[in-house]
Amino acid sequence: MRIGVLTGGGDCPGLNAVIRGVVARAERLGHQSVGILHGWDGLLENKTRELGRDDVRGILQRGGTILGTSRRDPYAHANGWESVRSTLETNRLNALVVIGGDGTLRSALKLSVEGDFPIVGVPKTIDNDIAATDRTFGFDTAVQIATDAIDRLSTTAESHDRIMVVEVMGRTKGWIALYAGLASGADEILIPEVPYDLDRISREIERRHADGHTYSMIVVAEGIEPPPGSSIELPLDAFGFPRLGGVGYTIASELERRTGFEARVNVLGYLQRGGTPTATDRILATRFGIAAADAIHDGHYGTMVALRGNDIKLVSLDEATAEVRGVPRALYDDAGTFFG
Ligand code: F6P
Fold it and tell me: Can you give the residue ranges of the Phosphofructokinase domain (predicted)?
């Protein structure tokens, strides 16, 4: 078989480990892998390159994706369908491994169902919000980076008696904020799943400072609603998702106004997606890649590889893209034990 491999949507630490897993396993099983360059763009514009075992040596620990990626919905383009078809035929591709998040996997589902093309999906996102899998690779790395950053910001905050607001990624879900906040002992964690109360948080900050604590660390997920009275202009991306970022500034200025303590903001942004994946993410991504190649070999199309407990399972792409998964309230309440 000739198996296309595509990475779509935002990049994520561990993508190269998946590509390496797919290509190495496919070769062992007697198949040829073909890399699709720059996500769906490569299928729209016929940009591909054959990949053998030697092409994927030394990439396990590299961040980003050797194939490139893009945020493009192929079906939002004129003749998108025909262009994708034509590239699949020109390259004599029999199946595709699509490595992506919510938007990319939904396009993959369309191609699988409406285009009747053999596809296996691999869930990718630092946000950890794909419902059908217990974990996505990239999440562990993003949490570690955010935790390291918060640890560092604590020492500068305490020297100045400041409120430090750290904004982390995660889109509409608060996984990164919750995990990084828990791991770093944050004084408050604000996530989109749970409404926040700035009056209560301000009182806690005042009490902390009155008790002699020299700073307050507030971790904010980028997807929370801004406080009443403030708003942020958010442009939309190709899949119609708002491009988030900056809500931490509105929280910081409200807290400064209410408490009188100086506040500073750090938006960690793309730092959370860059650089080498953690060992945990390398292993999960490698297992996903191997399982995806096996699924293609065995003819289990229209599926996505998923982590369930410690096992890799196949779930339907349909189920995988049906909903996104938020932080359970009980887990947030556990974190609340340490607030204030
Ligand atoms: O979905 C992953 C993610 O990093 C989100 O956490 C973030 O909101 C978004 O992608 C940023 O997207 P872009 O790369 O298009 O700026």
Answer: 2-296
Query: What is the number of the ligand 1 atom nearest to the C-alpha of 273?
Result: 4
CB 88 within 8 A of CB 43: yes
Question: What is the set of active-site residues?
Answer: 127
For ligand 1, pick from 171, 236, 241 the residue to mutate: most ligand atoms within 8 Å of CB: 171
CA 266, CA 295: separation in Å to the nearest integer?
A: 42
Number of domains in the chain: 2
For residue 163, list its beta bridge partners. Answer: 216, 263
The answer to whether residue 339 is domain-embedded is no
Cβ neighbours for 331, distance < 8 A, ≥ 6 positions apart = 178
Please work out whether the CB of residue 128 comes within 6 Å of at least one atom of ligand 1.
no
171 is in which domain, residue-wise?
142-273
Is 77 found in the same domain as 30? yes
Q: pLDDT per residue over 78-113, tens digit each?
A: 788 899 999 999 999 999 999 999 889 999 999 999
Ligand 1 centre to CA of 73 (Å) is: 15
Can you tell me the distance from the alpha carbon of 94 to that of 110, in angstroms, rounded to the nearest whole number? Answer: 17
